[in-house]
Design brief:
4 domains, alpha+beta, Immunoglobulin-like, Rossmann fold, six-stranded mixed beta sheet
Amino acid sequence: MGTTAARLPGLSRRRHLLASALAVVIVIVAGGAQHAFAEGGPSVQVTAPAAGSTLSGVVSVAATATSDVGINRVEFKYFDGATHSFYDLGTDTTAPYTTCFDTTKVPNTAPLDATVYATAYDSTGQSTMVGNGVTVSNSIEGSGEPTSGDSLQPCNLSLRLGAGTSKTVPATLHFDRLPAKADILLAIDTTASMSAAITDAKTDADALISQIQDQIPGARFALADFRDYDDGAVNNSLGAPGDYPWRLDTDFTDNSSTIPCSTGGGTTPLSPIACGLSHLVAAGGDDLPEAYNRAFYQAYSDPGLHWDPGASRFMIVLGDALPHDAALSSGFPAGVCPNTPPTDPGSAFGAYPAVGPLTTLSVLGGLRDSHTNLSFVTYNVGFIGAQVPGCQAAIAGFTGGSQVTHGSDTSALRTQITNLVNAAASHIEHIDLNVTSTARPAGAGEVVPAEWISLKACPSFEGECAPVTGPATAPADFALQETVSPPQGAALGSYRFRVTAVADGSERATQEVLVTVTNQGVSAVTMSADETTIPAGLKNVPLGSIPAARLAVLSPDPSSTGPAGSTGTAGSILT
């Protein structure tokens, strides 16, 4: 089973609507009913949620699809009639076609003013799209943030268990190729040799952001630039007069609006990122290494950068140099990186305090600990020498990122950065499955979620199960065993939990669990025979426990001390 997803903003949404209008199938959904009109093409039906349903929390979405030539995939979408917004819920390539829909991420709707769609594509490319009218109603209304094709199925799990018993059920965790949300920091080396990069960035800025948001609808962008430390002299071991080791130009923004931007004596309406780029000028630098380590450090330390805690984090550096590090070569395979003294001093500058010497490995560790993936676009290879691209690639690889040389092909800068983000987004270094308690019966004691629910990955039916930790390359699927165990002494009543799949610090999928603790003594019964010569059936059974109406149809056991049909307390029957 596999899924892909992204909200359809702007151009992508228009393309989707045009494709729907030109398809061989026209679909009408009204009054909570499902209607489809087709001339050929596959057959598809949304089986969950039912037409006319009111949805809340995390719900299962399912469809059936058939075709004489075979089904290639089924795509699921949600349409909000009030905002005319489409949200992708995922694509499944294997029957049964299912996904999960976290309705808490979208706004509440008027009755039947929303639709859950399924579009089936057959192996020839023909498609059929059908939908069920639904209503979304949550106690806390969603803001309309992008949905995700990631899922933890079953989306909802409900069990009735006795205290001290347990139940294990199969589950599936799926990570889509790309996350629904991402924060992307563009950091540009603006020393004297980097004027071409600044020009490229200015030219491609808005197109770059649109291109990435077409694939990651919740992408936001920030802009920073850096040179080196100004130590007041020319031809010294650090920077030139007027240099700075870090400057935050624009905090994170979705770049969807324009702002008045000062441009040489006047103002021009520009997007926030384009405005920030318009003020960049290439100058200074002095020596060959630059303040890359300070830039890496500030990426996870600058209080002016407001990273979204629920988004995947990326730092893309445009540069042609290496960090100041007297022992740089020792941190990577022999011959990959040269030593570049002196080590970054971490000196105070502007409003930023001194932080002490910054080695490359220490700041890369900080990036990795903050789940920030670093990648490079390398400029001026003919000028800077052959070691810089390879060393930048090794530095990026420490965090799971990669490097590309600008000018190595005909790709525009926006395409190279988009490819870097896509490649980085598919790499998942660490996975956590977190369980939280969301409700418990009145009077119940403290609930420790980890004592109630555990999930482990089981690579095969007979393989050993282990916690899910990563790394992984998305799209990825994990076959899980989910065990629910109300502890001995748990109070009777209903307990609710939420299981959250987190990849590199970003929430990717959720599952709602309802556990009703009852006074039953067991959760399952296993029967076995202790004498191999006894025929299949029950040897000794208290006949008084069998309803009298059933005794007449049971075959008597000749050796029984109480004939079949008696109402005594001893006897046996044959089955």
